[in-house]
Amino acid sequence: MIGILTAACAPAIALLTFFYLKDEFEQEPVHMVIRCFVFGALLVFPAMFTQYVISEETSMTSPLFHILIETVFIEEFFKWFTVLGAVYFHVHFNQRYDGIVYAVAVGLGFAAMENIFYLLANGLESAFLRAVFPVTSHALFGVVMGYYFGLAKFSKHKFLFLSAAVVLPYIFHSIYNAILIHFESWSVLIIPFMIFLWIFAMHKVKLANRQHSNSDEAVPWRFS
Predict the structure, then answer these.
(1) Residue 220 lies in a domain
(2) DSSP-H helix ranges across the chain
(3) Which parts of the chain span the membrane according to its record (predicted)?
(4) What does the radius of gyration of the chain's CA atoms come to, in whole angstroms?
(5) Among 7, 158, 164, 208, which is least packed by CB within 10 angstroms?
(6) How confident is the model at residue 15 (pLDDT cuts 50, 70, 90)?
(7) Domain count of the chain?
(8) What is this structure's pTM?
(9) What is the mean pLDDT of the chain?
């Protein structure tokens, strides 16, 4: 049991530490980051319940519906709503990079709990692949979500940036799941896609740190 918990949580903690230390200005209080991580872990239960209700109460059996609504939308919306409700209006959310730290913490808390259930059911043999793909992808979706939360916090275009904070992770997560489910040779596509996600996410990390010094300036609406 200890081995499963370690294998399930260690990748999430390592990735969270990595993005936490990428903050070049003022690192967030550890208790706030832990709080978001715990909230993310607890999100697994309402997400699973909602997915169960949808699967039982609807007649939709389309794989596309399963990917776009039953899985991806519920997960990304719940994570987005948690960041919005738990930290977006908090006094410690005082710079743009903070959005990345908190959204990554929520995403990795979710990934860690999901990983625990998966490894309990399937054993430690899949721990490495789970760390490289599902856990890492939740972190990268969190970077994108948090970047736009950070822009929304200090911009006049709050609605547009808050929308982008859920729409872009939803799109990336949908593509990720579609590759895994619909392609037999999924590794041929998922590796380039993960490389793209890493490049895209690290670009957002650099932008968030760079924009900190200009936090009083209006941010134009763009996806760059």
Answers:
(1) no
(2) 2-21, 30-57, 63-65, 74-83, 96-122, 127-130, 136-153, 158-182, 186-211
(3) 30-54, 100-121, 127-147, 159-179, 185-202
(4) 17
(5) 158
(6) very high
(7) 1
(8) 0.89
(9) 88
